[in-house]
Design brief:
Layout: H1 3-18, H2 53-58, E1 64-65, E2 69-72, E3 77-82, E4 96-101, E5 108-112, H3 119-131, E6 133-137, E7 142-146, E8 152-155, E9 171-174, E10 181-185, H4 189-192, H5 195-205, H6 216-222, E11 225-227, E12 236-238, E13 243-247, E14 250-258, E15 266-271, E16 276-281, E17 287-289, E18 294-296, E19 300-301, H7 302-305
Parallel strand pairs: 1-9
Antiparallel strand pairs: 2-3, 3-4, 4-5, 6-7, 7-8, 9-10, 10-17, 11-12, 13-14, 14-15, 15-16, 17-18, 18-19
């Protein structure tokens, strides 16, 4: 996500605070049932070629799994090698060697370590990580490794505009204990549907996009992911500033409420059909899963919060 995109997200979050919650009954029909187009063939050297049957059964929402070699499981940091795609679907040059860090506020697979590709250099980097302290610089998207001798090493991030699958697959990264997956990349509405189909979906969801929120449709097209959050067989749309989900015989919108005035890194979200809220600390929005539930920023159980109320 670029700096401009982040500004759009923050402005969108502020607008959401001013927007009244709209809940409109909507009879869900067969057309609303999840029907994503045939899974495309995306070639990436970083994907596990033959994931085990157990892995696929336990995490059916994952189309592919990114291969990780863990350097420090406690710090949730390892390395991998993968291909990156541009927004037009073409590959961006050669393979990328990078660190993956499952930071609770900013998980990332983008820390470029091409200059460490030599085996001896990788051993040195591994020692730095194991013996040092890891710090994520959110605003600059860099990773800082502070060594025991007081010296620091900066690992830069690759462009946030480049993707692992051009947002046509759900790409999962396992946590070190294997109990959860970080969904590092999700299927995006404008990448898995044709324009005509998107327009139909826009019409269907208009009741949940307020006139005071003019960038709503843009955000839904560009940022929202197609996902069945509560496993009811009807597709939902998870996005940076607007999330719409089905529950019972209607759609609802997850509403953002500020927990603290002027603090856009600490949010409270309201789920109208069960009249409950959840609070998270966040720098970005992301999903994790244990195979049976989705979690917002690995904190709130989105599956339970979006299921039908009493």
């Amino acid at each position: 996500m670029s700096l401009n995109s982040l500004k759009i997200r923050r402005n969108a979050l502020w607008l959401l605070r001013l927007t009244a919650l709209v809940v409109v009954p909507y009879g869900l029909v067969k057309a609303d049932i999840v029907k994503i187009v045939t899974q495309p063939s995306i070639i990436n050297i970083g994907f596990v070629k033959e994931p085990s049957r157990e892995l696929k059964v336990n995490f059916p929402m994952c189309d592919v799994f990114l291969r990780v070699t863990w350097l420090d499981k406690e710090k949730k940091i390892g390395y991998t090698e993968y291909d990156l795609y541009k927004s037009d679907g073409s590959k961006d040059g050669m393979h990328n060697l990078a660190l993956i860090h499952l930071d609770s506020n900013w998980p990332s697979f983008r820390y470029n370590i091409e200059t460490w590709r030599d085996e001896n250099k990788l051993k040195k980097l591994s020692a730095l990580i194991i013996n040092g302290r890891i710090k994520t610089i959110i605003g600059e998207y860099n990773l800082i490794i502070n060594g025991e001798d007081g010296a620091s090493t900066t690992v830069p991030s690759t462009s946030l505009e480049l993707t692992l699958s051009n947002n046509k697959l759900n790409v999962c990264v396992p946590f070190p204990d294997g109990k959860r997956m970080w969904i590092a990349e999700e299927k995006r509405v404008d990448k898995v549907y044709e324009k005509q189909e998107i327009n139909k979906k826009m019409e269907k969801l208009k009741p949940w996009i307020s006139d005071v929120f003019p960038v709503g449709a843009y955000l839904l097209n560009s940022y929202s992911s197609v996902i069945d959050i509560n496993f009811d067989g009807v597709e939902d749309y998870f996005g940076a500033a607007i999330t719409v989900y089905s529950s019972g015989n209607r759609y609802y919108r997850m509403q953002l409420m500020w927990a603290h005035e002027y603090d856009d890194n600490y949010g409270e979200f309201y789920f109208p059909q069960i009249k409950k809220t959840c609070r998270i600390i966040f720098w970005s929005f992301y999903l994790t899963t244990d195979g049976k539930n989705y979690f917002l920023n690995n904190q709130c159980n989105l599956t339970k919060l979006t299921q039908k109320g009493e």
